[in-house]
Amino acid sequence: MRTLGWIKPTEWREVRYGTSRAGAVDVPIFTTASVDALPETHPEVDWEQLRSVGKGRRSPLAALVKARQRDKTVSYVVRRSSRL
């Protein structure tokens, strides 16, 4: 949902695991209001299907991300070719 631009973190927090500094990652933090608003702002998504995706299974949103990336690539190619 972040990749699609549907939601943005309000802040980032460093979370450490293990004993070394190398085991630290930055984790995005979202408000519950922004997460709760997603089904209303994106009714095109089958939220029940999305919630039922099993552990280790590919999210149906992955297809939307690929489609968006493909559209951006096509748009870029068209803009470049129109300049030639």
Jot down its keywords.
two-stranded antiparallel ribbon, single chain, alpha+beta, 84 residues, extended
Written overview of the protein:
- This protein is α+β, with helices and mostly antiparallel strands and 84 residues long.
- The protein is 44% helix and 14% strand.
- The chain has one domain (11-83).
- The protein is built from four helices and two strands.
- It starts with 10 loop residues before the first strand and ends with a helix.
- The mean pLDDT is 83.
Overall morphology? extended
Average pLDDT rating:
83
Number of helices: 4
Radius of gyration: 18 Å
As a percent range, the share of strand residues is 5-15%
Uncertain stretches: none
Task: List how many beta strands DSSP finds.
Answer: 2
Largest β sheet strand count, sense and barrel closure: 2 strands, antiparallel
